[in-house]
Each structure stands twice: as structure tokens, then as C-alpha cells.
């Protein structure tokens, strides 16, 4: 079972690395076109609106699981930052990758600490 998981994880890491190389090669040839900027702006704005709608519709009793889930998603930032450090894009990219690792770690750990404190409020007091 563990071997299958390791093979899956290695395959996933290779796929992410290939995707990041493809994206880097696509934008390394110069300035992105107006169409690429429009596409990226559209995706960003859709993500903002969808995120706002989802967060505002969540009842207060589900804020703790929502926060826990968003902290887990924040861990994905760590994976991307580690891949940036691993790949040889120059010292500037590696510096930004290191900064991203530090900030994403602080974000994830701090978020889980706050989630833990929120869960403590729901525990029954002894005595």
C-alpha cells in the first residue's frame, strides 16, 4: 500500500514539474500577449467572486471546518514553492521560492493553531 502511494506521489510530482516547465517555457519567450493577460485576469476575477460567494454563504457553525480546509489548501503553496526552489531558474526565483516557503509555513501553522483554539471552544468543560 505504501509503495503504491509512493509511486503515485512520484508520478504526481513529475506531472507537476512538467506542467511548471511548460508554463515557464510558454512565458519565457518575452512579454505575454494581451490574450494571455485577459485569460489570467478572467480566471483571477472568477476565483475572487466564487470564493466570496462560498465564504459568505457558510453558516457560522461550519467556519472551523472551512478554516481547516483552507489551511490544508495553503499547504499546496508549500509544494509549489519547494518546486520553485528545486528547479534552476536563477537566484531570484530561488529567493522568492524560499520566501514563499517561509510565509506559507507561517500561514499554515498559524491557521492550524487558530483552528485548534476554535475547536477548544466546543469542548465540554469538566467539573
* 3D shape: extended
Order of helices and strands: HHHH
State which percent range the strand residues make up: under 5%
Structural class: mainly alpha
Radius of gyration: 19 Å
Helical amount: over 70%
Q: Give the biggest beta sheet.
A: none
List low-pLDDT spans.
none
Average residue pLDDT: 79
User: What is the straight-line distance between the termini?
Assistant: 45 Å
Number of strands: 0
Total helix count? 4
What does this structure look like?
The structure is a single chain. This protein is mainly α and 127 residues long. The chain has a domain at 60-127. It contains 4 helices and no strands. It has helices at 2-27, 34-57, 63-86, 91-120. The longest helix has 30 residues, at 91-120. The mean pLDDT is 79. GO terms for molecular function: NADP binding; oxidoreductase activity; proton-translocating NAD(P)+ transhydrogenase activity. One of its GO terms (biological process) is NADPH regeneration. Keywords: Cell inner membrane, Cell membrane, Membrane, NAD, NADP, Oxidoreductase, Translocase, Transmembrane, Transmembrane helix. InterPro entries: NADP_transhyd_a_C.
Amino acid at each position: 500500500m505504501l509503495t503504491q502511494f509512493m509511486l503515485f506521489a512520484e508520478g504526481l510530482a513529475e506531472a507537476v514539474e512538467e506542467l511548471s516547465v511548460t508554463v515557464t517555457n510558454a512565458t519565457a519567450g518575452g512579454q505575454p500577449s494581451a490574450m494571455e493577460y485577459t485569460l489570467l485576469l478572467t480566471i483571477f476575477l472568477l476565483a475572487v467572486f466564487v470564493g466570496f460567494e462560498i465564504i459568505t454563504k457558510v453558516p457560522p457553525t461550519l467556519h472551523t471546518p472551512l478554516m481547516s480546509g483552507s489551511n490544508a489548501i495553503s499547504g499546496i503553496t508549500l509544494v509549489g514553492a519547494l518546486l520553485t526552489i528545486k528547479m534552476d531558474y536563477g537566484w531570484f526565483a530561488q529567493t522568492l521560492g524560499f520566501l514563499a516557503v517561509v510565509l506559507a509555513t507561517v500561514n499554515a501553522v498559524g491557521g492550524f493553531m487558530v483552528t485548534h483554539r476554535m475547536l477548544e471552544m466546543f469542548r465540554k468543560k469538566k467539573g
